Amino acid sequence: MGFGGSVLLSLVLVLVVLQGYGLISSVDGYDPMDPNGNVTIKWDVMKANQDGSFDIRIFIFNYQLFRHIDAPGWKLSWDWQGKEVIWNMVGAEATEQGDCSKFKADNLPHCCLKKPVIVDLLPGAPYNKQSFNCCKGGVLSSLTQDPTKYASMFEMHIGNSPSGQQQKGDMQIPQNFSIGLPGYTCSAPFKVPPSRFQDGSRRFIQALKTWNVTCTYSQFIARTAPTCCVSLSAFYNETIVPCATCSCGCQGLSGEQCVEQGKTPSLLQLPHSDRDIVPDTVMCTKHMCPIRVHWHVKVSYKEYWRVKITVTNLNYAKNYSHWSLVAQHPNLQSLVEVFSFNYMPLNQYGPINDSGVFYGIQYYNDMLLQSGENGNVQTEILLRKDPGVFTFREGWVFPRKISFNGDECVMPPPDEFPRLPNKAHLHASVRQYTSTVLLMFSIILLIL
Ligand SMILES: *[C@@H]1O[C@H](CO)[C@@H](O)[C@H](O)[C@H]1NC(C)=O
Ligand SMILES: *[C@@H]1O[C@H](CO)[C@@H](O)[C@H](O)[C@H]1NC(C)=O
Ligand SMILES: *[C@@H]1O[C@H](CO)[C@@H](O)[C@H](O)[C@H]1NC(C)=O
Ligand SMILES: *[C@@H]1O[C@H](CO)[C@@H](O)[C@H](O)[C@H]1NC(C)=O
Ligand SMILES: *[C@@H]1O[C@H](CO)[C@@H](O)[C@H](O)[C@H]1NC(C)=O
Ligand SMILES: *[C@@H]1O[C@H](CO)[C@@H](O)[C@H](O)[C@H]1NC(C)=O
Hints:
By secondary structure, this protein is mainly β. The chain contains three helices and 26 strands. It has helices at residues 2-19, 219-222, 431-447; strands spanning 39-48, 54-62, 75-79, 84-90, 92-94, 117-120, 151-160, 175-178, 184-186, 190-192, 196-199, 203-206, 209-217, 228-234, 237-241, 291-300, 304-313, 320-321, 324-328, 335-338, 342-345, 355-359, 367-368, 376-384, 401-404, 407-408. It is elongated. It binds 2-acetamido-2-deoxy-beta-D-glucopyranose (6 copies).
């Protein structure tokens, strides 16, 4: 008996070691799934005019692998160092003109503010206001999802206020850049080698001067509470492990508002303008998350296994366009097929290939609709059982980490994961185990 016990004990130990959950995750700016992710603002001085004015070209590049910039889009601002004003702008506009009373001209500047706030034009802007790569309402795709829509560009003509000192051919780069989105902080501008632009097929032109500003995202700075949680189930256990209570907020706590299931939210709670950041209006649940991701271990075949992933929108105030879901699981290196989403592996660590990004198929499920009957997207995925690694034990089949739109989802505690029934080896349905257990028994018999 003692002998059987020690075999069992060592088996448990080995499994505990194999299990290796990465439970501690950082909440600071660094995202291990996208360590170089950033939004870069590039400021190109294209022309310095005789009258001390400048022609500027500004680009915004979203270099993040799976975090996109959603509606209502970027809102770029900066502080002028001197008395600069914006005379003209193409491809974007300043939200306020400000006080231009110092100018005695028929033609007033576009913006006289010390801190201009610039927004992209909406699609369908007048042709003479458009620039190449403009007019997407400030929405930028991630590099993974649509490499053709990850940049914005606009041009402006800047000069000096009459009371300002005339600049002598030298551009003073403004300070305190911001892209006006929660969670992003921008570096100070740094001078980089001047940009080159193709002008015709064989000739390049060059900016006079170029500065870059790098903005990085931190979930911790963005919000105080998570916005997404994970629930789990498996074919071998009837229990559906729900999202952890109070994952994103606690129902009933003062200040927490929600909409009872089956009721429609009052119009007051819903968005009014395209320009506003919409507060979440969530369905009342124990977890209070606007997004729930369910991971269901559906079928076990001889050499493969199948998982169904369902993403449910419990937010009445938002349709999530171009959503993305990052999953980390050691078996993703042997992913065979994804049936209804797109997938791209994120091989950041070379040999460790355990994470990837799922995203919607254009015009099919790239829009996750607001809470309600159609407020979900789902797919099944097929994975090959890596010999010697794959196991149904110890919750190995469940993800280590899930994030939605780049924000990490709250997982249920591992000790609550659906467990294999204790007498698993008696049920032929779990074939993998039947064979290992038989093998163990024969070894024990041999030794005895
Ligand atoms: C920003 O992202 C680009 C593209 O991935 C990368 O080349 C660059 O080094 C990043 N910048 C910083 C400051 O991380
Ligand atoms: C940038 O912001 C800091 C802190 O708010 C402020 O002290 C500084 O004057 C700003 N820079 C400019 C050029 O306005
Ligand atoms: C500045 O930004 C541009 C555009 O994103 C990029 O190509 C360039 O490598 C950046 N330069 C530096 C030094 O980061
Ligand atoms: C979401 O999209 C549906 C269908 O396009 C639309 O009827 C609804 O008003 C949208 N909801 C929000 C909150 O934008
Ligand atoms: C990583 O896994 C994916 C499947 O998820 C596979 O297509 C890719 O080739 C793997 N890459 C490496 C470097 O192993
Ligand atoms: C199913 O999993 C739950 C949660 O881990 C566990 O409490 C329960 O005992 C399992 N059911 C069976 C039949 O083993």
